Amino acid sequence: MNAKTRAILSTLFTIVLAIIGFSQYSSGYGYMTFFGIELSRGVFFVLIGAFIVFDIIAFVNASKTEEQIEEQVSQDEETFSTAEELSDPCSVSLTRNKNLMGAAIKSTVYLNGNQLGQLKNGQTLEFETKSKNNKLMIVNNKDNMSRAIEFEAEPGGEVNINFNYVKGELSIV
């Protein structure tokens, strides 16, 4: 689930909570509690207002991050489309370390601005490149955080890249 989806779900939760609270307070007999603390009508409205502000900020940040990634991918595609070509393709192997933390989260892999596919926990993605200079970018599908590494390929060569999800590190091994 990405950041924009979480922001939308949080907003829906806030709306449902607000409807329930408003119906409780409008009856004149009900009240709401927050972690066991009884809330007055005014405090409840302030709390709902704070939730709404948080939801808006989360949605705006998710949208900005998504736009930044799209812009970076577009720039990479433009930059590397004119890169020097190799006489023979170079094999590239990208391995994501297997780890319990983030195990269910897929990452999207881009090479020179072109999407290659999804990388799951413990998975290895193998592909070839004909460009001498390359940029590999991995976007975490949960929060749209990205990591990138640039490398130089050799004709008929082999490049092995390791991705440590927990540390957010890409390294050539």
Descriptive notes:
The chain is 38% helix and 36% strand. By secondary structure, the protein is α+β, with helices and mostly antiparallel strands. It has two domains: 3-72, no CATH class; 83-172, Immunoglobulins (Immunoglobulin-like), CATH 2.60.40. The chain has a four-stranded mixed beta sheet, with no helix packed on it. A hairpin with a 2-residue loop joins β1 and β2 (37-39). α1 (3-27) packs antiparallel against α2. The longest helix has 40 residues, at 41-80.
Mean pLDDT: 87
N-to-C series of helices and strands: HEEHEEEEEEEE
Strand content: 35-45%
> What is the 3D shape?
elongated
**Quick one: how many beta strands?**
10
- The figure for the number of domains is 2
Q: Which CATH C-level class of the largest domain is it? A: Mainly Beta
Brief overview:
With 173 residues, the protein is of the alpha+beta class.
Summary keywords:
single chain; 173 residues; alpha+beta; Immunoglobulin-like; 2 domains; four-stranded mixed beta sheet; four-stranded antiparallel beta sheet; 2 helices; 10 strands
Itemize the secondary structure elements and their pairings.
Elements: H1 3-27, E1 32-34, E2 37-39, H2 41-80, E3 85-96, E4 107-111, E5 114-119, E6 124-131, E7 133-140, E8 146-152, E9 158-164, E10 169-172
Helix pairs in contact: 1-2
